[in-house]
Amino acid sequence: MKQNTALIIIDMINKMDFDGGENLLENSLLVAERLKEFKKKVKQQGVPVIYVNDNFGLWQDNASELLEECKKGTGEPVVEQMEPDEDDYFIIKPKHSGFFGTQLSILLDHLEVKNLILTGVAGDICVIFTANDAYMREYNLWVPEDGIASEYKEDNENALRIMKRSLAARTDSLDSSLLGHIFSS
Amino acid sequence: MKQNTALIIIDMINKMDFDGGENLLENSLLVAERLKEFKKKVKQQGVPVIYVNDNFGLWQDNASELLEECKKGTGEPVVEQMEPDEDDYFIIKPKHSGFFGTQLSILLDHLEVKNLILTGVAGDICVIFTANDAYMREYNLWVPEDGIASEYKEDNENALRIMKRSLAARTDSLDSSLLGHIFSS
Amino acid sequence: MKQNTALIIIDMINKMDFDGGENLLENSLLVAERLKEFKKKVKQQGVPVIYVNDNFGLWQDNASELLEECKKGTGEPVVEQMEPDEDDYFIIKPKHSGFFGTQLSILLDHLEVKNLILTGVAGDICVIFTANDAYMREYNLWVPEDGIASEYKEDNENALRIMKRSLAARTDSLDSSLLGHIFSS
Amino acid sequence: MKQNTALIIIDMINKMDFDGGENLLENSLLVAERLKEFKKKVKQQGVPVIYVNDNFGLWQDNASELLEECKKGTGEPVVEQMEPDEDDYFIIKPKHSGFFGTQLSILLDHLEVKNLILTGVAGDICVIFTANDAYMREYNLWVPEDGIASEYKEDNENALRIMKRSLAARTDSLDSSLLGHIFSS
Predict the structure, then answer these.
(1) Chains that contact B by 3+ CB pairs under 8 Å?
(2) What is the CATH number for B148?
(3) Pairing of the two strands D140-142 and A5-10
(4) Which chain A residue is nearest to residue B131, measuring alpha carbons?
(5) Which of A44, B78, C90, D146 sits most deeply, having the most CB atoms within 10 A of its CB?
(6) How many CB atoms are located within 10 Å of the residue C72 CB?
């Protein structure tokens, strides 16, 4: 794993207080457990971690406030697992793609990142939107098939197929032995 | 059909000289025949037509030159059918989404357009990318299921499902009776 | 004053720990006193207040943390005067223009704002950059001549002249009787 | 002069059929003569030339048509001097900055350009807007003081001062001996 790789965690700090939120919560919890371990592992290798998270209507660019708000919601069990460390980056997004109306691409330039590991929810909405924008900006993509979740399994798989085919994304699982060399070439 | 609607035609002026181009050509030809008629019909109702087209590496923002180039390629039969009229708009895009690095959103503001009919190729790449960006910019979307084509049928259907579910897109067919009132509400 | 107007406060939450910071601090303090009153007055009329503020290298989209940091810096006296209220919006920018890499234009759409009162520092850098971007996005601009400050007076005046001439900005002072009708037409 | 440098020519293909156009025409003609020579010289050294030009309301991304249109206008003498070569790039912009709603930054990435020589008109509008956007994207800037023109000399000088101070731009003249090493460090 090279330093020019970043781990992106999308919308895991989440109220989940919308229709379909319960389904998404269940699927997200499974991802959260795996992702927590994976995050620990890649941080030890110097990979920066960037939360890219919905603003949930607050429009404050205030991560502290956003965290407090989301702990009060249905998504609390996921928030507990995924709470950002002090040295993680935290970027608030107003729309679906992590690149739209955010400082993400400027931060990635600043960190000299070329490879993105995209994780989080929902696979068929914010993850795929962010992946599209990342691809147009010429990042190499790894979207681990067990590192994203959607409300419905079938939609999650559709999204993975599209990202694999149209965005040249790797979709190997989080515990893949690829970890060491997936972006090494 | 209201004047605040535009017909977007994506990448139909196309060399199709890439791997998989033959498949795409065959599928695009079917779309081109239907789309030509549809274009005629909506223009009579005052709907502006906007070609949004790959630059094919020319980087010249020169539609005349682009047309000449594409007529020399495999895609020529489609280009013949879909040649733009003098009063159509023509926007050249450098990447997959019609909104990325183009004047499209500024033109749509200028035309006071709120509703987009997205058509063209490829459904699972440039059409879905453009649809994503359109959705984030709060346009209402109609992506007629028989107005787009991809290299593979299954991928085209996947893309339609994603656009329907995640982008709230209508996918009714081109000859749908919805034409008159689909965006009327 | 119509509801489609917003007060933008640029970089007043500021460490001012750079070369030239002392000059800027002195000039900013004068602005801060006037601006504090002006802000109170326009809020009573329902005008939303949007802080648009440098990230000072934190990359956290965390307004709370940013405020704490800036209180420790040379700019503390200005921060004290200009501390945001709970109901003010707070947007963090990574570069000079408030529109570049931020959710500002999406928030302004959301608030249906068409007219901007641009205030803050530095007039010849972040204010004029933000003004340029605002003008291209077709906002009407009021940049009160006593609501902005730069390190050097002459540079501040140059910036005002450019904004007046090239961006069609009004530059009337904060206590202008224009307040009631400047954007009414 | 390194290959990672590009010469940008702004709005020299110009109708000049607006108020103040006559003044601008006179000032632009002086620039055109010098710029024509300069362009020849830098092309011999392998520097790519990129025209970045207003759309003049055509919305067609059609350089051929734009050239024809502008030859019919007041600006014809300048257009004659500055007509693009076949191997020059041509980018059409809908607004003042060459980066807003265009493929410019994608082309510059593609060409691996880091240093820009900004020339053309008007210095106090489109040139300074483009310079601002270039600076935020971390390009090094050379805006030759005799390579730009504005309607009024004083405004041109103001713009140069702002670009020098706030954008760290070099403003040495076109025939400067700096040509060989200005961006060499």
Answers:
(1) A, D
(2) 3.40.50.850
(3) unpaired
(4) A129
(5) B78
(6) 11
pLDDT of amino acid D19: 79
Whether pLDDT at B11 is above 70: yes
Whether residue D169 has pLDDT greater than 80: yes
Q: Is residue C29 part of a domain?
A: yes
**Average pLDDT over every residue of D52-65:** 90
CB distance from A96 to chain C under 8 Å?
no
CA D135, CA D131: separation in Å to the nearest integer? Answer: 6
CB-nearest partner of B124 from A100, A129, A165: A165
Where helices occur in C45-147 by DSSP H, the ranges are 63-71, 76-82, 104-110, 128-136
Q: How many CB pairs under 8 A join A and B?
A: 50
> Residues C8-57: pLDDT tens digits?
999 999 998 877 778 899 999 999 999 999 999 999 989 999 999 999 88
What's the mean per-residue pLDDT of chain B? 91
Q: With beta carbons less than 8 A apart as the criterion, state whether C39 and C83 touch.
A: no
Rounded Cα gap, residues D179 and D7, in angstroms: 12
b/e per residue A157-171 (b: at least 16 CB within 10 A):
ebbbbbbebbbebbb
Instruction: Fill in the DSSP letter of residue B33.
Output: H
For chain C, say whether A87 makes contact (Cβ under 8 Å): no
Tell me what the pLDDT averaged over chain A comes to: 91
C121-136: b (≥16 Cβ within 10 Å) or e: bbbbbbbbbbbbbbbb
Answer yes or no: is pLDDT of A1 > 70: no
pLDDT at D184: 54
Q: Are B102 and D59 in contact (CB under 8 A)?
A: no
Which percentage of chain A shows pLDDT scores above 90?
A: 78
Q: Tell me whether strands C49-54 and C89-93 are parallel, antiparallel or unpaired.
A: parallel
Q: Residue B20: which residues within 8 A CB-CB, separation 6 or more? A: B151
Report ipTM (2 d.p.). Answer: 0.88
Task: Quote the domain boundaries for residue A129.
Answer: 5-178
Across B48-158, where does the E strand assignment appear? Answer: 49-54, 89-93, 115-121, 140-142, 148-149
Is D46 in a helix, a strand, or coil?
coil
Decide if B129 touches A, using CB distance below 8 A.
yes
Q: Is D185 a member of any domain?
A: no
Q: Measured between alpha carbons, how far is C126 from C149 in angstroms, rounded to an integer? A: 11
Mean pLDDT across the stretch D104-118?
Answer: 96
Q: Which of A96, A124, A136 sits opposite B97 (nearest CB)?
A: A136
Q: Phi then psi for C121, rounded to 5 degrees?
A: -135, 160
Q: Do A103 and C59 touch (CB under 8 A)?
A: yes
Question: Within 10 Å of residue A153's Cβ, how many Cβ atoms?
Answer: 12
Going by the DSSP 8-state scheme, the letter that residue C179 receives in this structure is: G
Beta carbons within 8 Å of D69's beta carbon, 6+ residues apart: D15, D56, D58
Which chain A positions have a beta carbon within 8 Å of C60's beta carbon?
Answer: 63, 89-90
Tens of pLDDT, residues C159-181: 999 999 999 999 999 987 656 66
D118: tokens are 């900004």
In a domain, A103, yes or no: yes
Q: Of B63-67, B169-173, C8-12, which range is least confident?
A: B63-67
Distance spanning both ends of chain A, measured CA to CA: 10
Residue A78: pLDDT band by 50, 70, 90 thresholds?
very high
Q: Look at chain B and report how many structural domains it folds into.
A: 1
Taking the CA of residue A128 and the nearest CA in chain C, the distance in Å comes to 20
State how far residue D43 is from chain C, nearest Cα, in angstroms: 32
Examine the pLDDT at B12 and tell me if it is beyond 50: yes
| Structural domain includes residue B63 | yes
